[in-house]
Amino acid sequence: MTPAYFDTRFKLGLPFTELPESFAIITAHATTGEVWTTEDNHAANEALREELDKGGKLVGTITGYSPITQHAEPGYAATLKFEEACSVGTRFKQDAIYYVSSGTLFVSHCDHRRSLRPITQFAKRVEPEPDPLLGSRH
Length: 138
Fold this sequence. Notes:
By secondary structure, the protein is of the alpha+beta class. The protein has one domain. Helix content is 20%, strand content 30%. It has helices at 38-54, 82-91, and strands at 9-12, 22-27, 58-65, 72-78, 96-101, 104-109, 117-121. A seven-stranded antiparallel β-sheet has the order 1-3-4-2-5-6-7. A hairpin with a 7-residue loop joins β6 (104-109) and β7 (117-121).
């Protein structure tokens, strides 16, 4: 498994407290080692969003990023069972998905090598939310 998967951090597009007990984190961008056009990445990401939204599984947006390279991929939090999440990942040509259960962040290949590999507590990998009381400073 690509070592970078174990360093990924996350920026939430929704409050941390709105996340369910268990959920998948799935993207639809070019798989590691492949290069797709910006248009292809956007089209795949939109198709994934539509599929999750139609199925009532979409929770919100989550962007995974590398703290080392700063490479970032927008993705989605979805209320999918693990096997279903891997199948969705496979349909969208993904090598791996993240899965959160009872606060633990896991990574798994999407193909026949599916297996939840623990990384750490999810909260430790989430960028802190800005304090609304501080507001913006100019």
